[in-house]
Amino acid sequence: MALTEAFVRLYDAGLVYRKEALVNWCCSLQSAILDIEVDHLHLTGPTELAVPGYSKPVSFGKMWDFPYRLADSGFAEV
Prior knowledge:
By secondary structure, the protein is of the alpha+beta class. The chain is 14% helix and 13% strand. The strands form two sheets. The chain has a two-stranded antiparallel ribbon. The chain has a two-stranded antiparallel sheet with strand order 3-4. The longest helix has 11 residues.
């Protein structure tokens, strides 16, 4: 209870706030992880990598274009 009260006081004083930034999310742990826990890879092009929990390699570094319709728009496809 004391921890919650201290947190609320800090929040009310403007000392604790949510930052708008990317978060390293671990799907296995279902939790955010520290940047130091992330293995950063520099990819120079499309690459297939083994990912825990997947039986086949997963493709990374690919961009896909596809048309889609906008609701209540005069355009057929964007």
